[in-house]
Amino acid sequence: MEFSEKVDAMKRAVKADGISAKFNALKEAVKAGNAPPMNKDVRLIVERIIAQEAGRVWCQNCGKELTDPKSIALGIGPECRKPLLKKKVKA
Ligand SMILES: [Zn+2]
Description:
Layout: H1 3-16, H2 20-32, H3 40-53, E1 57-58, E2 65-66, H4 69-74, H5 78-90
Antiparallel strand pairs: 1-2
Helix pairs in contact: 1-3, 2-3
This protein binds zinc ion.
């Protein structure tokens, strides 16, 4: 599973299991730097969710963080957009 899929799966699981309050407490602890020891993968996922909530965005295609407003709006970076644009011109 891709990292971004794991992040989405975690978000769905938190909602479905009704553990959002517990998960929010964990997020706050991670933000404050006093989180309990946890699985490294889980920690990375929690950190990514915190970053997403802060408005940071990653390319849906390659997973690189996006920084320019156009890419953020589209959810895809310039290098990954190029092949898509070529396709559009041909069609
Ligand atoms: Zn990309």
